[in-house]
Design goal:
By secondary structure, the chain is of the alpha/beta class. The protein has one domain: Alpha-Beta Complex (Spore Coat Polysaccharide Biosynthesis Protein SpsA, Chain A). Helix content is 45%, strand content 13%. It is built from twelve helices and eight strands. It has helices spanning 3-26, 32-39, 44-75, 89-98, 132-147, 165-172, 209-219, 234-244, 266-270, 276-284, 309-319, 342-356; strands at 78-83, 106-111, 120-122, 153-158, 162-163, 182-190, 196-208, 302-303. The strands form two sheets. It has a six-stranded mixed sheet with strand order 3-2-1-4-7-6. The chain has a two-stranded antiparallel sheet with strand order 5-8. Helix 4 links the parallel strand 1 and strand 2. Helix 3 crosses helix 12. It is globular and about 55 Å long. The two termini are 35 Å apart. It is found in: Membrane. One of its GO terms (molecular function) is glycoprotein-N-acetylgalactosamine 3-beta-galactosyltransferase activity. Keywords: Glycosyltransferase, Membrane, Nucleotide-binding, Signal-anchor, Transferase, Transmembrane, Transmembrane helix.
């Protein structure tokens, strides 16, 4: 829907509410009994009028958020590349399409077969995480060769990832996508030769178009610096390849050292209950990882292990549920104090993005 159409609908709704409001109050003849009746707390007509005004404000704010999200989408283009399997099409992939994938500028699944209904391309004949390197090499190469530098950023995710695209756009809105950027939850391991590898894993990794170009045209062309061996996890191998072309796995936390790309579920990372699974992340995390919500940033980018129903649960909590009296710390009213100006809101997002994350 265009900006003109949204504005026209908004004006029409406001006009209808205003006319209804006038009809209610102009047809009423106040008497002394009416005043006494209202003083006793029975404000039927007044409540109706105030409700109409309130609904006008609510609808205006909904439109404002849509406009802000659309402007962010226009300013920061992100292509989402999802690693999946045919066996997970109905239980996982479809639910991503129904929720957060629609906020990407475009998206594609990489699987073991071509499927136009997703859509997906065949990345490699063999399935399983252990063969993900072959599939993601094919997927990343396909995106670069088909789209070139059309998209500013590429977000690689699994089919059990949930991503908050508005937060990701705020994270990168002040960064130059033509440079080599590589973000995510930073892990460390040693390879077979004892070399330390720093790589991004879990809920997905984010790379700039500059990094993608160098990865495909330099690293992928040289097997000595980026092995095409299929049976290597893609996140580990991509980290190694980037390191060999001098693109560093960057600090993706906020200025308070809190994590925003989560390699596991928000419930596991936010909980104070320890587990063997979480202990593994703590051991391999490049940075300190305390248990509980103190380790989590206010503007998360992605969660992992969000399967099936959890996709819709997160969609509801993030985009539909509200808490009385609470609003985003970023979005402020304009100087008039009456309406939320989209341009002002975008400037606030840029300012907050610049001051809240590490560069």
């Amino acid at each position: 829907m265009t900006f003109f159409m949204r504005s026209l609908i908004l004006i029409t709704l406001k006009l209808l509410f205003f006319i209804t409001y006038l009809l209610i109050f102009t047809q009423r003849n106040y008497t002394e009994n009416d005043i006494m009746y209202e003083e006793e707390g029975n404000f039927d007509d007044n409540q109706t009028g105030m409700f109409l005004i309130f609904m006008t404000i609510v609808i205006k704010n909904i439109v404002d958020f849509t406009e802000i999200a659309n402007e962010l989408k226009n300013d920061v283009s992100i292509f989402c590349l999802i690693h999946t399997s045919p066996k997970y099409k109905e239980s996982r992939a479809i639910h991503l399409k129904n929720t957060w994938l629609k906020r990407c500028n475009d998206y594609l699944f990489v699987s073991t077969e071509n499927d136009q209904t997703l859509p997906s391309i065949k990345g490699f004949r063999r399935d399983g995480y252990q063969f993900s390197n072959a599939r993601m090499r094919k997927g990343l190469t396909y995106v670069y060769e088909k789209f070139g530098d059309k998209y500013d950023w590429i977000f690689k995710a699994d089919d059990d990832t949930y991503a908050i695209m508005e937060n990701i756009r705020m994270f990168v809105i002040n960064r130059d996508p033509s440079e080599g950027h590589y973000y995510g939850f930073k892990l460390k391991i040693k390879d077979y030769y004892g070399h330390k590898i720093k790589y991004m894993s879990g809920g997905g990794y984010l790379i700039s178009k500059g990094a993608l170009k160098k990865l495909v045209t330099v690293a992928f062309k040289n097997p000595k610096i980026c092995s095409p061996t299929p049976n290597i996890p893609d996140d580990v191998q991509i980290g190694r390849c980037f390191s060999n072309i001098n693109i560093t796995a960057m600090d993706s936390r906020d200025i308070y050292d809190r994590h925003v790309f989560l390699p596991s579920s928000f419930s596991e990372f936010g909980s104070l209950i320890e587990s063997t699974h979480w202990n593994g992340f703590q051991k391999r995390s490049f940075y300190d990882l305390p248990k509980g919500m103190s380790a989590l940033g206010n503007f998360p980018m992605s969660f992992h292990y969000a399967i099936g129903d959890m996709q819709y649960g997160l969609e509801y909590l993030l985009y539909h549920a509200e808490v009385a009296g609470r609003t985003s710390r970023i979005i402020q009213k304009t100087s008039s104090g009456n309406e939320l100006n989209t341009e002002h809101a975008l400037n606030m997002i840029k300012m907050y993005g610049k001051s809240n994350f590490k560069y």
